[in-house]
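Example record used in the benchmark description.
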Amino acid sequence: MLTRERTVALTVSLLFGMGVFVYGLRWLEWFTTFHPVRMDQNHRPAPPSGGAEVWFTTADGYRLNGWYFESQTKPSAATVIFFHGNSGNITNVGWLGQWFARKDINALLVDYRGYGASAGEQGDEAGLYADGDAAVAFVVNEKGEQRNRVVLYGTSLGTTVVADVASRHQVGAVIIESGLSSASSLATHRFWWLPKALHFLGKNDFESARKLGSVRAPVLITHGDPDPVIPTSEARLLFEAANEPKRLLIFPGAGHNVFGSVGDPYLNQVAEFIRQSVPQH
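Model output (structure tokens):
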């Protein structure tokens, strides 16, 4: 028969064990979600040719860094805001900004809070979405772009920003590369040992598929096959959830980084999708 003292001890031990489990799960979630690479504020690399360093501030007060590339011809076809994945920073994709500029498309490359030279620390999806809002406000208010000519392009983690921002704001088009439909869906593949009933313990939901149902802009979804990071099946779930007009492109052998692996043959299709989706001057 359990004594009162033993019952209390077992209860405390159980609660402590549950707390340790939840803390460990949250740490694992953060560790697999965010891999920021910071820049030395006093020795920041300059943008590549054609790019300019820009700064803008989020609604909650964080100063973010980006590189802005103006179209090499006027008028431009559109303005792309590019949201990179969970690792590195904008220095890894400077060439992509140059590529868009050569194709008559303005491009803003964004570093989230805690990445590159941007202030703050990255910790949850709410911060990512606030950063996305600030980037859109910058190109609309500071660069004078019309909202229906703003294209949101995200890869991997950046696709969650695209889906969220586009579900709440008017934009011209949406490009989702190597994206996840939700944190729970991805966890089913990556953390197979964790019962689905416990997925609610995670801090981030990343419900991109659900949010795509509120997006009224043309949607392009692309993915490599196989993708060792985010299964290709996630792209099909996103495509099913998106409204028309929508398009799905699967690239055999491209892996997780489609734009880097396939290069021009892929990016030319992206540029054509942009021109077909947004009004031209």
